[in-house]
Amino acid sequence: MGTGLCFGAFFLLTLDTIRQVPDQTNAQNLGESEIRGKHLFETNNCMGCHTILGEGAYYAPELTKSYVTKGPEFIKMMLTDPEKLYPGRRKMVKYDFTESEKADLVAFLKWVSEMDLNGFPPKPDLNQ
User: Fold this and answer.
1) Is it true that domain 30-113 has CATH number 1.10.10.10?
2) Can you name the residues that pair with 62 across neighbouring β-strands?
3) Chain segment 44-84, per-residue pLDDT in tens
4) CB of 48 within 8 A of CB of 63?
């Protein structure tokens, strides 16, 4: 009896989780531009320096909410000439992305920023 009840509860919770996946992953808004942007993100090894969704390196900023916090124009400027925005600081590689590739990367970061991540990344506590 107890095993069956636990199995039933686990089964129902699993079904509820699966039901929520499309809304939380923002899959309905995944288009060709976002897919190309993700491909660029991966093939240029952006995760070698950045984190996204908590995965990757911790050398450069976390990009999960960068579209919301910095905006699309800042991201495009950073992709165009990172040294100009932050002279004398750690340098991001200057890629020769086309305008179309920059737009695809921005679309990918926008898509990521619209995922329901249950409050991740946490906001810093500035009162410490």
Assistant:
1) no
2) 51
3) 999 999 999 989 998 999 999 999 999 999 999 999 998 88
4) no
